[in-house]
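Sample A.
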Amino acid sequence: MVSKGNYTRYWINKFNDVLEDLEEGISMGKFFSYLIYYLLTSFIKFYLTIIQAFLNVFLYFVLREVISPLQLL
């Protein structure tokens, strides 16, 4: 498992290894498969972060509206 802090470094090393293989004549398909996988996982992580932030803000305002009337009781 790759930690959050090392996520970018992990992929830089992975691409570096693949590029070295390309120089040795390994197929370009392997490079593109890593690239596509990286882009998809980065896209998913990015949108999950946005969704989490949106939900945090949404819940803050919803809970504030629910709790305020209860404090008057």
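Sample B.
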Amino acid sequence: MDPNRAIADEVESNALALAQRTAPSDSIPITAPQGVELLRLNKPPIDKICKHGAEEFRANVDDDPERIEFWLENMIRVFDELSCTPAECLKCAISLLRDTSYQWWNTLVSVVPKERVTWEFFQTEF
């Protein structure tokens, strides 16, 4: 048998089998909203939270505990408005920490088991 003919026959056979195969009736095609949701899971909505009033936090030597509490309450309000997941809340809050406050966070999480580092943990420690 001619080797080229054998290859052609195999290609035709595979193409025919593929064309005859039907998708199971219970399969669900991926739609645009599902794709968007996948992107949402991988990227925190930093741009959105900033448009809703989230601000960076820079610690000062003479920080007033009330200022710290106000910042955290504002973050919680923004996250609630945008229906952020706890994981998104944590990522976004950390991304808004600057200077010594960010260094404080890095020091803290370096000695805490990773599974304990949650949004609730952040709120308690902050």
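B remarks: The chain is about 65% helix and 5% strand. The chain has one domain: 31-125.
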